[in-house]
Amino acid sequence: MRPLASRIQGARFWLRDARAPAALVATPPGPMDAEGLLRLDLRVEDGRIAAIAPLGTAPPDAPSLEGGQLWPGFVDAHTHLDKGQIWQRAPNPTGDFAGAVRSVMEDRDAHWAEAEMEARADFALRAAFAHGTTAIRTHLDSYLPLARMSWPLFTRLRAAWAGRITLQLCSIAPLERFLGAEGEALADIVAQSGGVLGMVTRLAGDFAAPLPADFQPMLDHFFALAEARGLDLDLHVDESGETGARALREIAATALRRRFRGRIQVGHCCALTLQPEAHQRETIALMAEAGMRVVVLPMCNMYLQDRAPGRTPRWRGVTLVQEMRAAGIPVSLASDNTRDGFYAYGDLDMLEVYREATRILHLDHPFADWPRAVTAEPAAAMGLEAGQLRVGAPADVVLFHARHMTELLSRPQSDRVVLRGGRVSDATPPDWRELDAFVTA
C-alpha cells in the first residue's frame, strides 16, 4: 500500500478497483458479492468525494487498490478520554469491575490535573486520528469540583481538534449525583458546553427483588434535567452480572411515558443476557418503541465481566445485539476504556473493535451490514453526517490492502492508508514514552 500512497497526489484523482461494504455506500454502483462487498472506482475532487462509479470507469493509469477495501472514516461513539492511559501508575491488580472503580477513583483523587489530563487525552486523539477515526464521543467523570476543570479543558480540546476529529462530550456520574443543587449545576455545565447528559445506574441484587423505591423518582428527575435544557442522553446501564440490574427496561418505559424528544443511547446493558427471556423480550420491545440506540463495548465487557481468580469465565458479558438489531434497534460498537483500570489494553483503533466484535458477537456468516456499527450507526447516534461513502461527503476514507473480509479481519492492517480531505495522512500512533512523565509509577 505504500506505493499506492505515493501515487495519490494533487487535489483531483481517481482511486481505481476498490472493494467497499455495500452497506456503507449511499448509492451502490453495482451488485455486491456474498460478503456484502462491491467493486467500484471513486473520484476525489478538492477534498470531497466527487463520484462513486462502476468498476472500470477510472482511467487505467489511476492509482489502483488492486481489489483492496475502501471504507469511510470510523466513528467511535463511546470512549473515556479523561481516564485513558493511566495503567502504569494505576493498575487494576484484580482485573474486575470493583478493582477498576477503586483504582480509577484513587488515581482521579491523587493525580487528575489539567496538564496531565490534556496530555493523555491528546495522546489518545492522535492515536485515533492515525487509525482513521473522524469522530469520537467521550464520557467525562462529572463530579464537582472536578467538572469545573475538565469540561472547559475538553471544550478547548474539541476546538483544537476541529477539522480533524469531531469531539463530543458527555457526562458520567452515578444517577444519585444528579439530585439537588449538584445535579442542576452538572446539567448546566453540560448544556453550556454543548454536551450530552449521561449517568450510570448501579442496581444490583436478584431479579426477584423489587427495585429500590427511590430509583424511579431519581430517573424522572434526571429526565427532567435533560428536558429543561434540550439535551440528548447517553447512559451507562446495567454494566454487571447482577440479574437485579434492570434499569434498561425502566429507562425505556420512562422515555415513552414522558414522550422524551431527544436522542437516547444506552451502553453496556450486560445484565440483560442473564435475565428471564420474557423480560428480555419486553425490554427490547420497549427500547425499539422508544427509538433508543445501543452501543456495545465488547472488549471491555469481556475483560471485566465474570472475572474471578483462578476461574475461567463462563459468560461473555455482552448484551443481546443480535436480538436488538432484529427488533430494529440501531447497534454501534465502540472502544470504551483504553489502558486504565476498566480495560488494560486498546489504542482507539476502530478496526480492532470491529475485528474483535465480529469474533465475540458472531457478526459474520453473513457479515451483512455490520460494518455500519463502526461507521454510519455511531455517526447517526451522534447526529453527524459521517460514516458513509456518498457523493459530496468529505474524502475521509481508509484504504486497506486486504481484499476480502477474512483478509481484513485476520491482521491488524497496520499498512492501511488514511485519507483526510482527500490527502494522504502521515499521522502515526504516538509513542507511549511521551506519557512517561505523567503515568510512570
UniProtKB/TrEMBL annotation:
Which is a Pfam family this sequence falls into? Amidohydro_3
Q: Which residues form the Amidohydrolase domain?
A: 219-420
Q: What's a single GO MF annotation on this record?
A: cytosine deaminase activity
Q: What is this protein called?
A: Cytosine deaminase
- Root EC class: hydrolase
Q: What is its EC number?
A: 3.5.4.1
* Keyword entries, A-Z: Hydrolase
State which residue ranges cross the membrane. none
